[in-house]
Amino acid sequence: MKKKVKTLVKIIGIVIAVIALLLLAFIIYSIMTKPKADISDIPQSFGTTLLGNLNNTSESKTKEDVGNLHWYSSVEEAAKDTSLIKDSTYFAGYDTAKRIMDFENEEQYMVLNAYENPKNTENDFVSFVLYHKQDGQYSQPYYIFSTWIDLNNDDMYRYDCDDAAASFVALENVMGLTMGKGKKGTMYFGFWSNEAETKSLTFAGQGPDEVKTVNLFDSPYYFWHITLPDTEKRLRSIDYSDYTCQDMIDALEIKYDR
Q1: The pairing of beta strand 157-158 with beta strand 37-38
Q2: What would the pLDDT profile of 76-117 be if each residue is shown by its tens digit?
């Protein structure tokens, strides 16, 4: 009798253990396959502290500081002087980054680079490096900032092409990464992983100035840039301490072919 009881107890224990393992496997599977929430209507915020203190950080030099900058006859020389950005949290990858494109106007020069995440996670980064221009000379880079290249790799939220475009515009406005193009307007740029969708992207009926394929880290990305007039008027209602991608999409009339 005792032997039968022991056998029954073992069987029950095995059954319980199997059920526990199956339950654990189900929980893990559910977490891994759980559909991401659409980012479009999720409230977002850059934070009032960031907005208020951006121009006071050690990473950023405003035009009033140009007297303290070093000046060089070429960008190549200027890029070697990293004295103002080497202590930045975004400096990682500066020496090994792949150059994507550069832009300039009469007062500013900007370089877009991409670099692999040093922590070897899914997300790689694009960095924005800013220089001042004056009398045909270039200052050393005075500001560097990085963000994800592929917003699709967000663990929690799903981005569509228009969400990604809106997110890049919002980021560039807040972080001072826009570039004025005189009467033509303000230049914005971004990335997306679908070529056809990127090429169909429009802002108030206007398509990108260019869509450039960039092969980075064994993956193709589609880099777009566009010069938009009247963006200040369109985005006047956006509160970056409490906004959604849909707010940006509506204000800029962002559309694309799904």
Answers
A1: parallel
A2: 999 999 999 999 989 988 988 889 999 999 899 999 998 887
